[in-house]
Amino acid sequence: MAKKKIESIKGRVFLVVIDASQEQHQAIRYACKRAASTGGRVALFKCLSPAEFQHFAGVAEIMRTEARENAEKLLRKIGETVIEITGQMPVLYVREGDAKEELLNLINEEEIISILVLGVSTQSSGPGPLVSHITSRGASTCRVPVTLVPDVMTDEAIDALT
Question: Bridge-partner residues for 15, per DSSP?
Answer without folding.
Answer: 43, 116
